[in-house]
Amino acid sequence: MAELPYSFHLGSNKNRKASARSNARNNVSGSSSLANNGIQNYQQLSKVNNHDFRKYENDNDYIYQLKGTNDIVYDVKEFYKTEFEEARLEYNNKQSRPSRRIDDYFEYVNKDEKRDLACEIIIELGNKEYWDTKDFEFKREMVNVYEEHLHDLERLVPEFKITNAVVHLDETSPHMHIVGVPVKDGCKTGLSKQVNKSSVFTKERLEHIQNVMREKCIDTFNKYFEKENATLKTKERGRNKDIHVKDMVNYQELKKELEINKRSIDKNNDKIKSINTSSKELKDLLSGLEESRLGGYKLNNKQKERLQDLIKDVESITDYFDNYKNVINNISSINDNLKYQKDRNNKVENDNNKLIKENQKLKMRNTELKEDRDFVHAVMDKRLDERKDFITYLCKNANSKDSTTSRFFRQVVNDMNSKNLITDKEHRVIFNPPRTINKSEINKALSSINREMDEAAEEFYQTNKKDDYYL
Predict the structure, then answer these.
(1) Same domain, yes or no, for 156 and 40?
(2) Are 111 and 99 in a shared domain?
């Protein structure tokens, strides 16, 4: 059973903070030296575009695009034009001074030092150790996992408008780059609809999003890789990464403290042995003393020195036993902490068992839904095949060498088209048939018409795109 870490990383920009800007002004370099991977402006958006689509490299066969075009800058600009245009015009109409009007909201946000132009989220399941054991075909299946995961994010955070998403298979492990724009509606000042990362991704909501998404990701992974039967590694509190049980909160500190206390106990045990030995020597020394004339005892120099050493040992006993008492108290506290951790782990295990049972039920339900879906697809394929047979039949008769038959069926085809029983494309193929009239050639003719329509639509789009005005 594989145990996989999950990472949901939202790009941040610590350089935006007032404290960071203050430090930058006071530094000789003029920078804060803080990590910054947020998309603050056009230049940083271009860097994201260059990385996500490897603009500086020729080989991008390991890059799979899930949403948007191969130009992230274009995608974001187009989104700004469509999403904020109505709010921009409404705002401008209320301004009496031309200098307060906004000509281009994209450029307006681009120049705003306190606002992000867009956001990037990087999602990764697994690590190098796991993925090094898998071949490329196995990794490529992650494209399907991440595509479903992308839809999960859109449903969970509808205010985060995703403009581009791409999966990379050419690095340490398969991961997904998502670029989007966080939108806040109903604003009281400025535009009624604005870019606002801090409102969409609050600390509490981001934690909730991460928790929900990590569970959805492992479920989707197991749907595509049932044999792996993977589970998630424990998430470290307050961090956007996963950890082993050995790295859980307080564990390492408790372990270190236990080792220190063990050394202290060993040291005290050695001292107690030394004291026991000294006590025996003291008894022997006292029993060997000579009585003096005055009723006391005589001590030679050697006995005197040894007695002084024993007195020092006895004086140190109190200190060592006080220390020993502290060690015992520490061990008691550590045991309480370990008991708490054990109880907590038992609770987590029970919760996991419940989740496993729920997942099993969901898997059964998913299997049933898959069977239903396959049945529907089979029926649809059958009906589609029957329709192609019918169109072929109409085409043959409408183009029959017998004029009576041809005239009759052409009238039938026109009537059916007027009543929307056959499409305009089918009508066109029947009246402009291929040289050989059979189901295969009819299908090719319909596909050719679809391509022509797509090309015409693209040509129309490109023509209008040149006439569009935007910076």
Answers:
(1) yes
(2) yes
Judge whether 442 lies within some domain.
Answer: yes
> Are residues 259 and 147 located together in one domain of the fold?
no
- Average confidence (pLDDT) per 10 residues, the chain, 471 residues: 88 59 47 55 83 58 88 92 93 90 92 90 92 91 95 95 92 90 92 92 92 94 91 66 42 60 67 66 65 61 71 65 63 71 79 84 87 87 88 91 92 92 88 88 85 75 58 41
Residue ending a domain, choose from 307, 323, 340: 340
Domain extent for 198: 3-247
Same structural domain, 265 and 280: yes
- As a whole number of Å, the CA-based R_g of the chain is 39
The two three-digit tokens of residue 13, written as one number = 């920009």
Decide: helix, strand or coil at residue 165: strand
245 burial class (0-12, 13-18, 19+ CB within 10 angstroms)? exposed
Instruction: Please report the DSSP string for 276-317 in residue order.
Output: HHHHHHHHHHHHTPEEPTTSSEE--HHHHHHHHHHHHHHHHH
Give the separation between CA 338 and CA 329, rounded to whole angstroms.
14
Q: One-letter amino acid identity for 16?
A: R
Question: What would the two tokens of residue 378 be?
Answer: 């089979």
| Per-residue b or e along 217-229, where b marks 16 or more CB atoms closer than 10 Å to that residue's CB | bbbbbbeebeeee
Residues 224, 260, single domain; the answer is: no
Question: What pTM did the predictor assign?
Answer: 0.49
- As a whole number of angstroms, the distance between CA 378 and CA 370 comes to 12
Q: Are residues 128 and 29 in the same domain?
A: yes
Same-domain status, 19 and 51:
yes
Sheet strands (E) in 126-190: 160-168, 175-185
At a CB cut-off of 8 Å and minimum separation 6, what does 253 contact? none
Residue 383 lies in a domain: no
